[in-house]
Amino acid sequence: MKKFFALALTAAMIMSLAACSETTTEETTTEATTTVAETEATTTAAETEATEATEATEETTEATEADAPAVEPMTYDEYVAAEVDDEVVVCAYVQAKQSWWDNKATVYLQNEEGAFFCYEMACSEEDYELLVPGQAILVTGYKGEWAGEVEIVDATFEIVDGNWIAEAKDVTEFLGTDELVNYQNQFVSFTDMTVVSVAFKNEEPGDDIYVTLSKDNAEYSFCLEYYLNGSDEEFYALVSGLEADQTVDVEGYLYWYEGVNTHITAVTVK
After folding, report:
1. Cα 50 to the chain's mean position, in Å?
2. What is the mean pLDDT of residues 59-85?
3. The predicted structure's pLDDT at residue 15
4. Rounded distance, CA 185 to CA 146, Å?
5. Which residues, 6+ apart, have CB-to-CB distance to 186 below 8 Å?
6. What's the confidence (pLDDT) of residue 63?
7. Which end of the chain has the lower number of beta carbons within 10 A, N or C?
8. Is the pLDDT at 163 greater than 70, yes or no?
9. Has residue 24 got a pLDDT over 60?
10. Kindly report the CA angle at 45 between 39 and 48, in degrees rounded to 5?
11. 38 vs 236, which has greater pLDDT?
12. Residue 85 has what pLDDT?
């Protein structure tokens, strides 16, 4: 009987140990599952935060780029102060076109502050047709100088909003003074000038006309630039026929070539 009780007690102890073992395994499995779930949740949260942070950064970058100011053009004073060969950016209005050739355009530009001569600016033939008088353009190029003429070279441009045409400024009083150059490339006028002589480039009609006018016994050079307005037959004939001692008023662009050499666009014989 004692033997039977001993065997029964032993069996009970074995069953108890087995039950404890199963409980421990279940608890361990549950804890492991919980830990994995928590880890996955933490990872997902971190990834979500990283994604949101990246998107926020991209949005901020896009907003910054959108808010970034466009290229700021120089004032005329800043342009004047720039050194030769410096890059320059100006916004001005087309006043006249001199020529187009081989995807290059030469134009006279002016704004309310001053004027610019843009020499052989990169320009397609189609875009050249868009450069009508008064049209605003933004020009990026380099400041150059040739024989005293300050110009913009190696330039590109883009059409911008705006339209303005300059009125001729009478600069007769500045003839023979250092102040005249301050109006270089502007649309100007001279009054009561006296014709001294008329000569043709290559000594015959069909090209530029060189006109010498005087004021107060001092002589000044003017030029009918054939590429600018030589195709105007009536105007070409008028300038060709000027005679010495006639009194005239003239308008044109204050070009410079070893001194003042205005490119004339209008002549009134008095």
Report:
1. 40
2. 76
3. 45
4. 13
5. 110, 114, 115, 166, 169, 171, 253, 254
6. 46
7. N
8. yes
9. no
10. 140
11. 236
12. 98
- Is pLDDT at 86 greater than 60 in this prediction? yes
Q: Give the Cα separation of 197 and 205 in Å (integer).
A: 15
CB 174 within 8 A of CB 183: yes
Could you tell me the CA-to-CA distances from 55 to 59, 67, 100, 169, 170 in Å, in that order?
6, 18, 49, 57, 61
The answer to whether 254 and 148 have CB atoms below 8 angstroms apart is no
Domains of the chain: 76-163 (2.40.50.140), 169-269 (2.40.50.140)
How crowded is the C-beta side of 256, counted as CA atoms within 13 Å? 20
One-letter amino acid at 219 equals E
| pTM of the complete model | 0.76
Q: What is the dihedral of CA 58, 60, 63, 68, to 10 degrees?
A: -110
Amino acid at 130: L
Q: What pLDDT sits at residue 71?
A: 85
Lookup result for tokens 């009609």: 205
Place of tokens 């700021």: 72
SS3 188: strand
Q: What is the DSSP letter of 39?
A: H
Kind of pairing between the strands at 247-253 and 261-269: antiparallel
3-state class percentages of the chain: helix first, strand second, coil last, to nearest 5: 35, 40, 25
CB 266 within 8 A of CB 226: no
Rounded Cα distance, 137 and 130, in Å: 10
